[in-house]
Amino acid sequence: MKTDPCQSYQKILVDYADLELSPERAQEVVDHVQSCHSCQQLLAALKQSLFISQGLWRTGYESAKSIAARGHTQKHPRFIRKLIAAAACALLTGVALLMVHR
Questions:
Q1: pLDDT (tens digit per residue) in 18-27
Q2: Residue 12 · residue 21 · CB < 8 Å
Q3: How far apart are CA 23 and CA 21, in angstroms?
C-alpha cells in the first residue's frame, strides 16, 4: 500500500514551524513544501495560527498586568473570557485547516 508523501510532512509541520527539527530534516521539509501547493497552504495557515496565538498571549499578559497595576478587578474576568474565546477560535481554525488537508 502506497502512502501519500504529504502525510509524513504534514505530521511534522508544527515541529518545523516551532524550529524543533534538525537542520537536515528541516531542509527536507523546505524542499517538499517548495514543490507542494497543498503543504504550502497548510504551512502558511499554521504559521498564521501560531502568530495569532502568540499575539493573543502577549496581549493578554500585557492587559492583565495593566489591569492589575490599576487595581481594576471587575474588568479582568470579562477580558479573560474574550481572550479564551479568541484563542479557542484560532485553535479551532487551525485544527480545521489541518483536518481539511489530510
A1: 888 999 999 9
A2: yes
A3: 6
- Three cell numbers, residue 50: 501560531
Do the Cβ atoms of 63 and 37 come closer than 8 Å?
no
Q: What is the dihedral of CA 93, 99, 101, 102, to 10 degrees?
A: 160
Q: What is the pLDDT of residues 42-66, one digit of tens each?
A: 888 888 887 777 776 667 666 656 6
**pTM for the full predicted model:** 0.54
Residue boundaries of the structural domains of the chain: 5-100
Burial (CB count <10 Å: 0-12, 13-18, 19+), residue 86: middle
17 C-beta neighbours (distance < 10 Å), count:
16
**8 Å CB contact between 64 and 79:** yes
